[in-house]
Amino acid sequence: MEEVGKGKRNQKAGFGAKVAAFFELPSEVVHNLPRLVLIGDQQLIVENHQGLQVYTGTEIRLKTAVGALKVTGEGLEIKLITQDQVNIDGRIQTVAWGEGQ
Amino acid sequence: MIARRLSAFSQGYLVAMVKGPRSEELINRGLAAGVVFWDIKRKAPGIILFKVYARQYPLLRPFFFRTRTKGKILRRKGWPFFRQRVWRKKGWLLGMALFLLLLKSLSSFIWFIQVEGVEQIEPSRVLRELSALGLSPGVSRREIQGKRDWLIRELRIRLPEVVWITIGLKGVVAEVTIAEKTLPPPVKESSYLLAGKDGLITRLLVLGGTPLVREGDTVARGDLLILGETRLVHLDGSVETKMVKAAGEVWARVWYELEIEEPLTVLEPKVTGGQRVVYSLRLGRRLLSFFARGQAGDLVRQERAVKTILPGRNGPGLVELIKDTYQTVEWTAVKIPPDVALAKAEKKGQERIGLTLPPGVQPKTLRKSWIVEGEVLTYRLLIETEENIAVSE
Please, are residues B195 and B250 in contact by the beta-carbon 8 Å criterion? Predict the structure, then answer.
């Protein structure tokens, strides 16, 4: 049942992606994908996140639809966090996708 | 962000702390409940500081228990909390308001008057006059501002020694700046105007002192014309004599008489023929005669011609060539016709008028007469002028 279910979801996602591509719709809207805006190495704005997993001064890990987003740097601060958006300030060194959700 | 900060200030917000290993979970749960967090900082491992709207903080309370974290409000900020704090200190607020009110009301009065620029006049006198006009400590600024021009005008009348006054208001201080007149030195002794010439007075112009003559008076040289005193008659009848410097003009008809004698017979030299010419060279002060020719008699007339060879810096030339011509003459009497003598006399008379009359004075009338007595023609001029004959003693 799980295999069948997974197959249906993949089919559905594939169909959705095709429709979005056909109508030139933004993927983050259609698939609820995270949207990242990195301003230099000082600010990162993440939209469509799904929660905060880890927060230290050197690492912030956010849960997203495509996996964990790992941000490392120095003096990291969350200037604002709402249900949809996170603004991170500080000296950002790496932005990487981690495993798992 | 500014809009959010303004909104947070107006609504009131809290600076709170969450402590526990599952702090991030608390934030996630808060987010799910619609809570907005900002300025999140990791203070220490397991401790997160954050800011949150005051009205949203109660939504977090159940999550503290569920996530086994502890929450603590560190500071309450924003307008609602400020208003509460101020309202709790009503007495202080009232005192402050009263103090400001008192300060405002007291600063609307003049409390000090400064007088500047006076040297001869006593500042206390200025203050007295100002007080009499209504400007004294304790007077309202508004009242003074309204009649500032009037005050300046009246003060100038009351202080004749003053040439310029201004009144400036700076806070509670009225600054009165005064410029004093530079008066001439007081007259210590009287002075007089005397007649410089004989004459018949035609008009008087007295600028200072008391006149002692009138139009039509005949005065001789040295007569007193204007006395250096004035008399002031006061309202009580008393007379005050004040010494002044006599000043004025006294115009009078003045006559001058000129007499010129012109001889009708003159002796003139007549060359008889003998002549001697001497050439000399002058070197500085030394005169060297180096050539002479001819003979002259005892009675000679000398003519000298000089040619400068080397001019000196000052005075006569340093080296000069001089030619002296001596001619033998004899004096012979020559008769001059009376009309020629009269013409000469008239010419001399015109020259004498210019030397006799004061500068700027022109003859008003001119009477001429002449007589011939023996070998002399006497020419007389009677000149009438009108001039100012007043001279200081």
Answer: yes
Tens of pLDDT along B119-161?
A: 888 889 999 999 998 899 999 988 888 888 999 999 888 888 8
Dist. CA B177–CA B114, nearest whole Å: 8
Nearest residue of B to residue A82, measured between CA atoms: B36
Q: Number of CB pairs < 8 Å for A and B?
A: 46
Counted domains in chain A: 2
Q: A52 near A81, Cβ under 8 Å?
A: yes
The token duo for B171 is 């806070």
What is the rounded distance in angstroms from the CA atom of residue A55 to the CA atom of residue A73?
Answer: 12
What is the predicted ipTM?
A: 0.75
Domain of residue A19, residue span: 1-31
Give chain B's largest Cα–Cα span: 164
The answer to whether residues A47 and A76 belong to one domain is yes
Q: Residues of A near B (CB-CB distance < 8 A)?
A: 51-57, 77-83
Domains in chain B: ranges and CATH: 2-84 (3.30.70.260), 109-180 (3.10.20.310), 193-251 (no CATH), 259-263+336-392 (no CATH), 276-330 (no CATH)
